Records
---
Amino acid sequence: MTRLLSWFLSTLALGGFALLLGVFVWQSAPIWQTEGTRYVTGSAWFYRQHQFGALSLVYGSIAVTAVSLLLAGPLGLGAAIFLSEYLPQRARLWLKIPIELLAGIPSVVFGLLGIALLRDWVYRVFTHFDPLSGDTLLTAGILLAVMILPTVVTLCDDALRSVPGRQRSAARSLGLTGAEVVWSVVLPQALRGIGAAGLLAVGRALGETVAVFLVIGRQDNNLPHPWFSLAPLLEAGQSLTTKLGGAETNIAFGDHLHWAAIMGLGLLLLVLTAGATALGTLGRTPHA
Amino acid sequence: MRIRATMRLFLPLFFSLLSLTSISASPLKINGSTTVNLPVAEAAEILRAEQKLDIQVDTQGGSAGGISMLGDGLVQMGMSSKPVSPEDRLKYPQCDFHPVHIGEDAVALIVSRDVWENGIRALSKSQIKDIYEGRVKNWKDLGGTKPQRIAFFNKEPGRGTWEVFVHWLYGSPKAAPQVSFPEVGGNEETRSKVASTPGALSQLSASWADGKSVFALALLGEDGTPISPETQNIASHRYPLSRPLFVLTNGEPSGEAKTMIDFLLSDRGQALVQKHGYLPLKALHP
């Protein structure tokens, strides 16, 4: 009975996801028919002229996510190593609780903090590069870094704790120092779990909307020239989620092609976040 | 077993959907401009609560949608931020359009304090075009005493303020060139962003330009005289960036439509007009 029910519920969940994906594919079909792959590779998004190139939006999403992971990754891993390898068990728990509480704070609260503190800070610190305002892709990335930090810390800590303690004792008895144990015994074995933590954090960062919306500046068609240029990071930009959360979604409803283009963005976002999350989850279960 | 579980899940959902579609007969249907919608929708909410009126307010197709749906008899009241044209009347001969003026919407070009102190007090139409099309990027080129980058915030798509702006600049939203600027949404957001960003410029409903955190520029007329968005200039239409707000009925308003119009013209209704950033009638005809 339990097995039957769990099979049924799993099928239901999987079916729900397939249905969701199907709806997005079906609703965005017109844009794929008219634009084809140019929809993803095109760099101009002007909906009044019916130009729908989503590249700058994909770039915006990837740019803010990359910035956040670059900042939160090393910091989070460092914090996790400290928590799991250097703190006594009791202190570790006491520190882990507030960190996990941080993960539960509504994102709009982070957004407000971003407006209150981060915008001006970015503007002042990078004033040498002459940004037009404090609303930039970089601001959004830094804000996201704060938001995904708890995820990174908790999951990295779990990954490190899953390395058996006996191996640590064995390594110590061979004469390795504490740092050497972490570096050459624990980290290599936890690598897979750490990678998974990163991917799950990426999934969260990609999907975050409200907080990013408040500080990203919402400027369409911001792309780097040449492609590796960092200059657009200090300009206002737009990500997949901020486009979807913005005014255009309401306007698009009723316009066949425009709506399809918006639903196409939803599909891209769904595929990106689901991909990152699925990979991350697989990485967390070693025998999957 | 599976089927029964699904039924249990979906049947209540199904019935609740059914009950949604069977709303009681003939509500007062209103459709049209998103700009006029703001005070009207709030008035509708008050009338729903206080007088148990059944009112549906929608904004399909903006002003043009309001006029055409009233002309076709699909709604009992239209909302429009432009006068009904003779062409509209020709197109719908069966409809006797009866416009009621409920207020005026003026759009100011506002700048941050440092721009104001840099000596920028007025802009001409061609200067504004230069900024909007990205040919001019520094306040010094527009008469500022010291060089300062222009941080232009564009109103996001669908905002009435943006439409007034491009109507004046290019004739219609469709004729406006393709530009990408950082976007701002509502009046509060626009004002605080402009106030907190050096070199900032944006469009804002005139009643929100407080002269303390943000400053309204005058527009240079054809002869070079500056015209500021002051109440008397808006009322006399010397200030070009403004438009009247109407609700429309077919013939003299009656019944629930009359109740709505009477409410909009009352002190409470006019306070709603003002609340959403428009000039009430009293300010137009003092």
---
Amino acid sequence: MTLKERAFGILPWTIAALLIAGVVHIVSVLLTPWVAPRDAYARLRDAAKADRPAAAARNGVMLLDPTAPGAQLLSFEDPAMAEGVCLFDLAKGPLHLRADADGEDYFGLSFHRASGAVFHAMTDHAANKGKIDVVVGDARQIEEMEADDSDEALPQETRLTAPSPLGFVLIRALAKRPSDYQRARASVEAVSCEIMSPQP
Amino acid sequence: MRAPFDKYLRALSAMLCGLALGFAITAATLKGGYGFGAFRVGPWTAWPRAGAPDIDPYARAALAERGEAPLGLDEGLMFVASADSAGGPLDSRCDYRISDPLPAARFWTLGLDSASGAPLANPAGRYGYTSVDILRREGGAFDLDISRRARPGNWLSPGEATSFMLVLRLYETPLDTAARLDAARFPSIVKLGCA
């Protein structure tokens, strides 16, 4: 068997290997958000399990420890931010989040799917008269709320349709100086997250 | 009689090679970034779509794999740099100076992280500066020194880490996915020397 014949013999198998590699690559990228064991939601849920009684006392917001070496829960978080989290499971009802924003210090809310991807974000600039009032629900829950609206009064809250039933809201308040940290933390603590009971 | 057995062996090895190669490509693509649509400006890189609703599958996978909850694009944008302005990789044995200017934003923070996104332990216990607490010269310009040895003025230490990343977070910046970026409006990272 000459070298050329050998090469032609291997060629179909090489092509097959490359095709398999392509399929494996695409499938593994698409599956990673579903199977990644330590995604943001899993990390926060594990922390919430340890923190649950305390979180209930703080209006459903779980305060995160200051980002520091060896103590950070999520990757690439800003150590200058005081942070809190509200986990939601829309099967138990829509999430109602209320916060005060003084408009002076940065205050941000990002709404995440379980995999960590953002489906909505807002800052204190979105506040209406110093208040942020958001309801997160699935498509059916939001539709029901819209159907219940009376014609006279416009709804006070911002309504968000979540793309997945599980997710979380990350609350970030900037401590402009290290000495402002406690104040920023207090503004995160003042946020309330409650599960709205389903309408009868 | 050898031929059919030979074919099975080849099919098996083609499959195993394909599997290994496929997973290797996935690991490589998820390692350094967040898929498509990156902003590259001088040594700085950001992935604005990682915080936007039109996120691509690579960014989605990278976020889940890293356990990251990125800033929403309406909140801000995170830029990272793992090389200096001359293109050399950041080395914690060397000293660097980061200098003005910075793009428009309501607030910004500038700090050091490990490649996996964890703050670096250092003797000063400081992980970054904000636009408010950084010391500025008359006129508002500033320098920030990165060094293992203590420096006067704005100073961050990578501690005992061998490599590090610079992380610049712009909060409420007008930059968006359609922005045109000018390297002259981003801070420079200049290597001063190595120990």
---
Amino acid sequence: MSRWVSLLLVVLTLAVASLFCVVILDEREQAFRTLLNEPDPRILGVSLNRANLTEPGWYFRVPFLHEFYRYDRRNLHYHSAPHSLNTVDRTLVDVDYYVIWRIANPQRFFESNRGEAAALQRIDELSYSELRETVNQHTLPDLLSDRRGEVEREITASAAKALEPLGVEVVDVRIGSTLYPVANVGRVYERMRTERSRFALKFRAEGEQQARGIRSKADGDSQVILAEAERESLRLRGEGDAEAARTYADVYGADPEFYSFVRSLEAYRKSLDPATTLVLSPKSSFLKYLFDPDKPAKPLP
Amino acid sequence: MRVVRVLPVLVLLAALGFWASTGFYDVAPDEQAVVLRLGRYARTVEPGRFLWHARGIESVFKQRVTTTLREEFGYRTTSLGPPAEVEEHPEEKAMLTGDENLVDVDFVVQYRIRDLRDWLFGIRSEEREDVIRDAARATVRAVVARSPVDTVLTQRGPIQDEIRLELQALLDRYRAGVHVQSVQLQDVDPPAAVRESFADVTSAAQDRESAVLEAQGYADKVVPQARGRAEEALNQARGYREQRILEAQGQVARFSSLLIEYQRAPEVTRERLYLETMEQILPGMDKVIMEEGGTDRVVPYLPLERRGGKR
């Protein structure tokens, strides 16, 4: 029995002791550990303490000897106030930005800042001066193009370098907005208006140009169509005339004298209307029998 | 004695049983859970009942993951309605485009939790919303800043896609653990002060269209008209040709038959034709018969008054 009781006691003691002697850091946490207020006490050159505990898990603690300073292990956020900055082309822009950062080295972070409030102040100062310096070396069009990413990477890199000694890792610095200061907005609007009216003029002129092109092409096309038709119809008429002439010539050529006779008679019939006064000689062939019925027939003209 | 010997075991077992019974938990169908063992990530748990964890050694973080979350920029929906009520935030709208124009943009980002581990442990939860808002704000402005104003005003689709992809990449870098479902640009307008000028450009573009359409209408009228007239002229010419040819053939046929008759009896036919013609033309006419040479002595005159009277 005494064996069981003692086992039970041992288990209980261990359980209770673990509450005091084990520190659990979960996924959100990391810590800076000191032994007798020393981050790195040594005996004969052998380190007795690991100060930077950046991974989650359980850690050993001797009560009253070890001290744990817990810090956040997650990504943290800082948002700046808007700053008026000069670009290299002397344009004043209002820029704000944010910083994503985390505590990478709890020992350094503890030694240089103690708390986050102080760290944020340092982050504000350092990232702002990096931003100002970088923006001063770039033009506004740089910030308004693909190069904005480059500018941000530059700021991130230099801010990371500046903040690394403080145990801070800069994950990203990114420009939030770039805007003209309120005082300059009126001029910007004026420029925008001018630019727009230029576009409007251009569009209307283009419309006129295209319309004229289309109209004149249509006119030209129809003239060509008409002229071709004219040519073709003249050709057709000529063909008709020629064919007719050939037909006439073929047949009339058989007896030109008779043709002349018949055609003359037809012409008389057509051209001498009842209003004509005809003076006839009694000797004419037509009247040859009128006064001289016995006269033998004489060939007609 | 026997009982006393087993008692500690029983106590231990009872204690163990009690401890074990406290370890059950449920994960609802719209939730997921992450289990940490001694502080370290152990597993992500899908929905289920009577799930068990070792209390004291493991801890469970449950979270609803199916809900779509949204962040609005430039406005806030104060009441879903319908009709929805909206509060404007003009200070969030203004941004600069790549050609240094100002535009006012309202947009909304919709996202949901994709990786619960990152969602819980990637960004400090109190600052998570600020990070997502800031990242979205910066991404939209970065994309707008490299697009000319006309693209921003007219090509929302491609710009939205670009923003969504960039924002997703950015939030993955920050270990936000979210999936960006959509970025929607709601109202994209030029600032009120220059809106009229922009509208004028739009109407100028329409003027251009209508001028072109009008001209095309003219062309569509004039060319067929010309074709019609050409067709007409050709048909007339064709008609003329046929008419001339047929007429000639007719005349010739008539002459040919006459000629045959004439050749059979030239004298008589000639006389007959002549007399027939005279018979036809003479009846209505005034006729004056004069001796041969009479014309030398009498001045021939035309009785104009009578002719006029006859008319």
